[in-house]
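Bit of a strange request maybe. I'm writing a small parser for structure token strings and I need a real example to test against, not something I typed by hand. Could someone generate the tokens for this chain?
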Amino acid sequence: MALKPSLRDVVSQLQAEGVLAGDAQALADTALASRQDVSTGSPWFVRMLTGFGAWVASLFILGFISLMVAVAEELGAVILGLLLTGGALAVRRVGNNVFLTQLALSTGLAGQALFIGGVGTLADSVEAAAAATLGLELVLLFLYPDAIQRFLSSLSASLALMLLLRLTVSGVLVDVALLGLTVLAHLLFLHQGQLQARRQGEVVTPTAFGLVTALFFVLLLRTWFHGFYNELFREGAAELPAGVLTLGLAVVTLYSAWRVLEETGVETGGAAGVTAFATLALLSVLTFRTPGIIAAAGVLLLGFHRRSEVLLGMAVSFILTFGISYYYDLQLTLLAKSLALLGSGLVLLGLRVFVLRRFPAAEEVR
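Reply from user aminoacidic:
Good idea to test on real output. This should exercise your parser:
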């Protein structure tokens, strides 16, 4: 999930700074050829089978442990969950091969589930389980040296925080917290290069992806399962109107667009900057009842800026998902909706022609 500049960009930058001399394409081809000559160790199918064997081995271990938990019940689950999680952390820090990595991951996830479930059952409280999840996952986020676990910890901690807030405080504060998570995700991606160079820099990318996933999950619940989403509120609580949440997400997206234009050397007050800002603002106004669209547009912007296929795929998938919701939410007849789709398609095609003619892309060096 690490996002790095392309090899050609790095070589071109080094040439511009006078560090390297020679043809950039030749240097890139040489470097790529040298990378292909380096042995990657075991073949991919051997690593896959090794990881599968680790998960099967962990299932046998957990089957034996479940017999112990059945005797000790809730308190035993809490203690055993902590022991399994701590053991997985120790194993992961000692070994780095595929078998130990996957064995530690699967055992650690089982330990976390035992601990959280034990705390919730022992306290007979969903709030206690959410608080236990938040505390445990924040610790593992910084201590567990694995990108997958850090992504899951970031996702779990974010969702646990949202659930805990929904059960204890005003619904307005819940939406404010969601905006805060969005701001944090955008800042992590915008300043990813600088943050990764610091201590604990390996935490940045998994955390950012976890926050984005949590954002889309919450917005998906709010959009498609609004009834169930409201049931999680404590009685009498209210939430922000969809238009206000859309406005907040639009402000975050516009800020990211401004930062991206600055980093790429485009004048924010020029024609290109004004066109980008006007397009995002218009999109947020037209879809003010579906905040997920402008949120996905912001992630799409970050995906293009960081050249991340994962972010782009997530953004496109959720734009289509929230777009379907927006279409069915329109209080119009089917004929009017069809005309709206036709008109919006023509507008987008016209906007594409305008952008290509007004801002021609620089010819790519091949």
